[in-house]
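Ticket opened by: R.M.
Priority: normal
Category: complex prediction / small molecule

The reporter submitted a protein together with nicotinamide-adenine-dinucleotide and asked that the result be attached to this ticket for the collaborator who will pick it up next week. Submitted input follows.
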Amino acid sequence: MSELKISIVGTGYVGLVSGTCFAEMGHNVVCIDSDESKVSGLKAGKMPIYEPDLEDMVIRNVDNQRLHFSTNLKDHLQDSDLVIIAVGTPINMKDGGTNLEYIWSVVDEISRNLAKETIVVIKSTVPPGTCNLIQNILGEKCYVVSNPEFLREGNAIKDFMIPDRIVVGCDQKIVGLMNRLYSDHISRGIRVVYTNCTTSELIKYASNTFLAAKIAFINEMSSIAERIDVNIMDLKEGIGSDSRIGNKFLEPGPGFGGSCFPKDIMSLINFSEKINANNSLIKSIIESNNLRIIEVSSNIAEIVKEGDSICFLGLTYKANTDDVRTSPAVSIIQNLISKGKYLVKCYDPLGIESAKLILKDSVEYYDDIYEAARGVSLVVVATEWDEFSNLDSAKLKVVMKTPRIYDVRNVINVKNFKANGFEVRLIGSVNV
Ligand code: NAD
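Result attached by the on-call engineer:
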């Protein structure tokens, strides 16, 4: 493979993982971020995020001199074959649209310092039409490419290295270069779907919206199942075995969250309204998820009584990440404490520090499961961390006020808890 010189702007979950993986595949990469503390930390070997296997891969590629860190795009612009933009595109709180300020700031910097033909790849999730706008701003000296990222936090390295497909929206002239960028993937038979920029941008929103719809659907099925003595896990197997449906993203739980699904669906709703497109199904996904969080909060409130303490195991929006952005666990806790009736005690293997920024001192934080559960009337398993499938029910019973557990991820060893005299409630089945 002929190596490319790549600058990646934005060294967060997507930028750092993509940059490190491109370096691992033999490219020469500089990851750029405006956050000086993040860059100096990375230069000193300190990871700004948790992602399985990331640290080892970063260190290996820094040692090989294929991975570098910088705060200055200008220094690297002239020397790069490709500039990849992976900055955040958060929700615009005013109208539910996408806040593109970080994208525009990078585009502006490129435009001011452009001295040669440059390929600018947009990896951030942006509304359809954004790449065309960027192309207009940067003009003929640039080729703008859409290359949305589909990795999942907690599985990011694997998802990046072995994706189901790669999506690229670009002019035919750029296909050769993009094939070089992804030559390692292509050599392993991974398909690159080439299309135009706007289609590529919409593919990203359509994928996330569809996956979120599956989660909202199984959660509504859970709600039905709980009321008529149907076991949701059997139902999941029954429908998921149909290859037209598939069993992925059919895990019942407290609702979807994270940095992407809610904001991307909101963004698609906002975009479709601007163009007067029908979006009733898309809107209902958000509505259903909000109701799900309220439903789970009410279920908890029904189990405990005023003045009780509740222990939350898991704060992140899913396992194997430290990300608590729009985590259902956090929203449920906020619902419960807003009523002022309960004391909430929390444990999470990686999410405590980021949760503190949201929940502040409204809850108690523990670095030990059994200390978090001391004196409580209910344990809620809110995130599917592996360690929660191996909870020591006997040890929990000794420290708890009342042996009750509500597993909203269906991961605990039910038989074991029942044998130790626990009152057990799961998601999507009334008869445990
Ligand atoms: P993030 O918040 O983790 O990282 C963004 C980084 O960009 C930050 O480190 C920030 O300091 C940096 N930044 C902002 N403005 C900058 C500038 N002008 N110059 C240099 N750096 C700048 O974001 P993320 O989760 O990595 O998401 C990035 C994009 O990828 C978003 O559009 C998101 O929707 C999309 N995406 C995210 C995921 C995910 O799982 N996190 C998955 C697929 C796609």
